[in-house]
Design goal:
Length: about 80
Amino acid sequence: MEIQLSPEVEQIVKDKVASGMYPDANEFVREAILRTVEWDYLKRKRLNEAIAIGIEQAKRGELVDLDMDQINAELDAEEGHFDS
């Protein structure tokens, strides 16, 4: 597989390898991909947990009126908690 990186991203890879954090560019890209897969899994897991909580709350009659802008704002705020 061959991929094209922007000059900015290529420099990031070079800097990480030069710092000694990674033995080569392949290892850096490999770890970045694995972290993305893990991040996607964690997001999906959190979403499923939140849905389960919401279903239980709805069954108990605990409903709150929200619009999509409010929901998206809350999700954006929560997403920052996982940045590293």
